Each structure stands twice: as structure tokens, then as C-alpha cells.
Amino acid sequence: xxxxxxxxxxxxxxxxxxxxxxxxxxxxxxxxxxxxxxxxxxxxxxxxxxxxxxxxxxxxxxxxxxxxxxxxxxxxxxxxxxxxxxxxxxxxxxxxxxxxxxxxxxxxxxxxxxxxxxxxxxxxxxxxxxxxxxxxxxxxxxxxxxxxxxxxxxxxxxxxxxxxxxxxxxxxxxxxxxxxxxxxxxxxxxxxxxxxxxxxxxxxxxxxxxxxxxxx
Amino acid sequence: xxxxxxxxxxxxxxxxxxxxxxxxxxxxxxxxxxxxxxxxxxxxxxxxxxxxxxxxxxxxxxxxxxxxxxxxxxxxxxxxxxxxxxxxxxxxxxxxxxxxxxxxxxxxxxxxxxxxxxxxxxxxxxxxxxxxxxxxxxxxxxxxxxxxxxxxxxxxxxxxxxxxxxxxxxxxxxxxxxxxxxxxxxxxxxxxxxx
Lengths: 216, 195
Known about the structure:
The structure holds 2 protein chains of 2 kinds.
Chain A: H1 13-33, H2 42-61, H3 67-96, H4 98-110, H5 118-140, H6 152-155, E1 164-169, E2 173-178, E3 187-191, E4 196-200, H7 201-209, E5 213-215
Antiparallel strand pairs in A: 1-4, 1-5, 2-3
Chain B: H1 4-15, H2 25-48, H3 55-91, H4 97-100, H5 105-124, E1 147-152, E2 157-160, E3 166-169, E4 174-178, H6 179-187, E5 191-193
Antiparallel strand pairs in B: 1-4, 1-5, 2-3
Helix pairs in contact in B: 1-3, 2-3, 3-5
GO biological process, one term (chain B): DNA strand elongation involved in mitotic DNA replication
Domain DNA replication complex GINS protein PSF1 C-terminal (chain B): 144-194
Protein name (chain B): DNA replication complex GINS protein PSF1
């Protein structure tokens, strides 16, 4: 990605476009590696999409045989892949844990800290309705009387927040408390800037969300 | 024994983890029938337990068999739903007839709904900035090279490329095409990658 050449796209935008791409790459990486869904970066995605459009228009102005055309096109298809895969990974998580995500999201919308984009939220709700409809139609409506309820709590799957992740600290963070599983010996650690660790996801979830560490 | 059929059903789908097999309508009907029988027996005995406490255990055992059957049936369906989802990503909104046959009518219904929901989502992507949607199913694999050589397996007809060129896809002809534009055709079995 180093040969990223946005010089086609205008003068001042050069630096920002690069930053945007880096942010998207990091969010993509975090999203792929974290067990739970993370706050969306729709602003960045839209910005990048606009940028792509712009670059595509510029590439089309170049003659087909120009070497730059194929280099830029390759670069663009890489960026597109990242965006598509990022969005797809989020959809997969939404589908898998849709019950719990919708429940959490309802509270988050009230406090204005929503993780999903409005589109994703609508998608999640629709998905849950579809599942419910299908199960009811095929099985639940045929089974005897009091077995017909769709027990939403028994159906929900929860992401495993205890799973271990590899991470790198972007800045120095002091005093992360690692609770002992058996409850008696909590441990406190500091993360040095640039250092790498393997920790349980739930202890550093907030740090991932505010960008102090990144998953690798 | 109670719940034996449902285990057979789950084992069947456990054996084919990767692939989707025929929807087992007959067995599901039998399981639901078993549930109705158990339920009726329970209703009768539950009314009698006020006099005869010894029936209580029987009722309990039957009840857990009922719960178990329900749970396993739902698991069977849920598992299939996940497989059907993958089909949508691989084949697009139209299923090949041989795969369509493996699905029950209700499942096909579910497939269409899933497909519509996904399509709505993808169409609305980036609408604020003048895009008319992004097809997420197009870029499933990381791009390796811009163009690939493909062999055409059927007489497909004309294909218009993004840059406006029109090419004729005839059986056994080879072409050098942009990767992004032939992914869908490769998955549909019209083209085959030969490089």
C-alpha cells in the first residue's frame, strides 16, 4: 500500500486521503480480529468511496496503454476490497449475534453512541424478523400448544469476549486491570507505546474502541 | 426411545458440514408427530397427577423430551439457514435449479427474503455521496492481479465491460479480462480461470 498515489486527486486532499485510508485499514483489521462488533466508521468509508470515484474518473482520462492506469487500477481494487471486506465482516457479525446486537444497540441509540449505521441497524432488525418468521412457519406453528413460543433468550448467541487477542499499543496506557478469573488476585499492567501483547479481549475492549491499542 | 429421530436428523447434517443436503421433510414430520403424541400423553397424565403423585416423574421426562425435540429441530433449521446464506453470497440472487431442489419451500422463501434484505442494504450503501450501491459479493477474494485469463465454458453471448468494450463469450474461447468483472461469471460456472 506504500505506493498509494493520490496525486491524481488534487492538491490539499493528498494527506487526508492517506490518513483516511490508514484509518480504514486499522478499523478493518480491528473489526476482523475482535470478537464483538465495533463502532462503525461510516464517515471514513464514505470519504474513501468519494475519493475512489474521483480517482476512477481521473484514470479514465488517461490513455489505456499508460502504465499508470494499471497501477492505479490495481491500487483501487485493493482499496475496494478492503472496504467491501470491512462491511462484509460487520454484516457477518450482525447476522451471527443479531439478537444481542439489536438489544445493546437500542440502549446505545438512546445515549447517542450507536455502533451500527442506520442501514446496518435496519438490516439487523429485518434479519431477525426473517429468522423468526422462518422458524415459526416451519416448526413452531406445527408443534403442540405451549411449545410454540419463539424463545428469544434461548436463541441468542453471544460473542466470546474472553477470547485472547494479539494487540499493539498505539500509546502508553497505564493501569489496565486484569481480573483474575477466580476472583481473588487481580493484576494491573501497563502497556508501553509500541509494545505487543496477548490479552483477553474484554479487558482491552474499550482501548480498541478509542484507538489506544490496535489488534494485530 | 424419545428423541431418537431428532438425533438421526442432526447426525445427518453433522456428516455434511460443508454441503447442504436435501431438506428432510419426512423426518421432521415424524418428529413433530412424536411431539404431539408426547404432549397428549402428558396432558392426560398431568390432570391425573393430583391423585397419583407417581406419574409426576413420567410427565417430567416426557416434557424434557419435548423440549429437546424442539431445540434440536430449531438447531437443524438454523444450521441450514447459515448454509443457505453462504449460497446467496456465492450464487447471487438466483439459485441453480439443482440446489433449489435441496431447499424446502419455506427455506426458499427465507432465501429470497435474505437476498432482498442484503440487496437493499448493498443498494443503499454510499447513497449520500452519489453512489448507487456497492456489490459486496463482487470482491470476495483479495485482488491478485488486474486481469486474468479465462476460458469460456458455455455460449453466453455478449458481455459489455466497464470501459464500454463489448466482447463475445463463446464456448471454448479464451479471454483476458479484468478480474473484478469476471468473478461473478466464474462463480456461476460460465467462465473458468486458467491462469
